[in-house]
Each structure stands twice: as structure tokens, then as C-alpha cells.
Amino acid sequence: MQKTIIVLLLCIIHxxxxxxxxxxxxxxxxxxxxxxxxxEYFLTAINSSVSNLGDENDKKLFKRCIQHHIESSILYLQxxxxxxxxxxxxxxxxxxxxxxxxxxxxxxxxxEEFSRLxxxxxxxxxxxxxxxxxxxxxxxxxxxxxxLSAKNTRPYLYLLKIKDxxxxxxxxxxxxKYIVLLALMYESDYPVDAELTxxxxxxxxxxxxxxxxxxxxxxxxxxxxxxxxxxxxxxxxIWDKPEIHELATPLxxxxxxxxxxxxxxxxxxKKP
Length: 272
Fold this sequence. Notes:
By secondary structure, the chain is mostly helical. The protein has one domain. It has helices at about 1-55, 55-75, 80-125, 125-150, 160-185, 200-210, 215-225, 235-240. The longest helix is centred in the N-terminal third of the chain and has 52 residues, at about 1-55. The chain is elongated and about 65 Å long. The model is unreliable at about 5-20 (pLDDT under 50).
């Protein structure tokens, strides 16, 4: 009787262990799938900023993020859910670094432009220009507040951090729209319509009325609308040619070398 009870207990324990393993795997499967979807959105949101305005370091890091994102997707399709989720988290770690870099540069740029163009608005007393200044500075302040919120979020809550950063990016791009309108008012070579609102109308006026700074403000205008100029789409280009093998080489001091398979454990040496 006692032996029977012991056998039954062992069977129950064995079943519970496998049930827990299946539950853990199912949880990781859901987390990995959701993480891959979220990372795709985060990378798409920052794509125009990197493609249009990023420096070489930003572009290297962006490529690295996409490569890790693709790797996490491959592992997920192969049902390597544990490794896939680890890659999802690591991708988010790098995305945070990328967003921090570009957001800081964006804020610095906006402040410089508002300081420069704001002088014209104050000197002329133009009500429309002063109105643009107030709206632009308001959106800039909202973006800075979102960045502060991301910084104050606990270190390992990656999703919450990045979501705040995405909201900050949206606010900064909205602020940048007023930079373009102010530049059209004060830095155009020909008179422009101050009541422009539609994307194509503003683009047309930049091409028509701005000669020396046309390229600069075309890039800014496209970036403010999460668009890239023709032929400058890093996300698409890297997806077409991901070069995943580059992950085996570390990226300076930012990302370690990565190998998909764990190295084999060496067999113990035989004693003579």
C-alpha cells in the first residue's frame, strides 16, 4: 500500500513538473510574440529619424537592433521560445540606447532652431510666428517630460521606457513642424503662404521658395511626418539584406558578440 502511494505521488510530481514546463513555455511564446510585434513598431517609429538625420553611430546601432530583431523572429519561428524571448529583451535594451541618442540630439536641434528663428518672431512681432513659437515650445516641453518619465522608470521595465520614448518622439516631431513653418516665413528666398497645413503643400513651398536650405528642411519636413526621403529607408534596406553574421562581431562598447548556438561543453580530460 505504501509503495503504491509513493508511486502515485511520484507520478503526480512528474506530471506537475511537465505541466509547469508547458505553462512556462506557453508564457514565453506569448511574451516573445508580443515583444517581436512591439519591437517592429518601435523600429518603424524611429526609422525616419535614423535615415534622415542620424549620424554613422546611430545608423550602426539601428542596423544592430534590426539584426537582433530579425534573429528573435527566426528563433520564434523555430520554436526556440526561450532564446527568442532573450533576444527580444536584448533588442529592447539596444532600442533604448538608440532612442536616447536620437531624442537628445533632436531636443538640442529644436532648441537651437527655436532660439534662432524666435529672434525674428520677436523682432517683427508677427502674431502668427509668435503663435507657432508657443505651440512648438509647448510640444518640446511635453517631449522632455516624457523623456524624464522614461528615465525614472525602473531599469528593467523596457517596454514602459520605450513607450514613453515613442510618445516623446511624437511630441518632438510635432514641435519640429513649427520649425519648418517658421523657417518658411523667415528664411525663404520668395514669399510663401503662412497658412500652410497639408504635407504636400508645405513640401511644394519648400521646393519652390527655399533655395539654399531646401535639402535641410525637406529632410526635417519628411522626418516630422515619420517619412524618409526617396532612396533613404534604412529599415527596408537592412530587411532586404540583414547580414545576420555580423552579430558574431561585437559592436564597439555597445553590444557584445552573439552566437545563436551555445558552444559545446568540452569533455573532461582523461587521467593518465
